[in-house]
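Hi V.,

You were right to ask for the full record rather than a summary. Here it is.
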Amino acid sequence: MSTHTTAGVCLFLLLSNMAAAQSFELGVKGGMTVAAVTGPAQEFESVVEETGTDLGVAIGGSFAYVFTERLALQPEVLFVQKTHALRLSSDDPLGLFTFDERFAVSLNYLEVPVLARVAIGGRGLQLLAGPSINFSLDRNASVDLLDIGLVVGGGFYGRLITLEGRYEEGVTGSTSGPNEDQGVRNRAFLLLFGVLRR
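Predicted structure:
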C-alpha cells in the first residue's frame, strides 16, 4: 500500500470517527453575578466617586455543537444583570456641603457569548473561553449600546446538569466617565447552574 493510500485511509477513519462523535446539546441555565466596573476613584468638583462590587442575576439558554468528546462550540443567549456599588462623597472643610451616599447601579445586557469548550479530564471537567457580544437593555445616554467582552472559565458538565464559573472582562468602554474620552469597562464573575438535553 502506497504512502498516499495509507494517509488517505487514516484521514478517512479520522473524519469518520469525528462525524460519529458529533452531537448537539440544548441547555437552560441561571445563577448569580458579582460585577464591578474598572477605573480608580474619580474626583470632580470636590465630589469623590468610588465603585465596588455588588450582586446581580443571569439567566438564559445555550446550544452546543459537540465535535468530539473533548471539543465543543457553545453559543449562548443570556440576560445578565451587572450590578455594581457606587459611593459618592464630599468632605467640605467648612461643613456646608458634606455627604456620603451609597447606591447600587444595575446595567442590564442581552449577551451572546460564543465559547469553545475543552474537556480536561474524563469526569466532566471542561474549560471555557471565547468572546461575548453584549447589547445594553438600558435606555441611558451614558451607557453604550454595544459592549464586547472576553470570557474565560470552567465547570462540570454531567449527563443532565452543569455547573459553571466564568469571568468576563469588557474590552470596550461600556459607560462614559466624567471625561467623555474616558471609558469605563465592565467586569463580572458568573456562577451558573444549568440543565442539559443531549
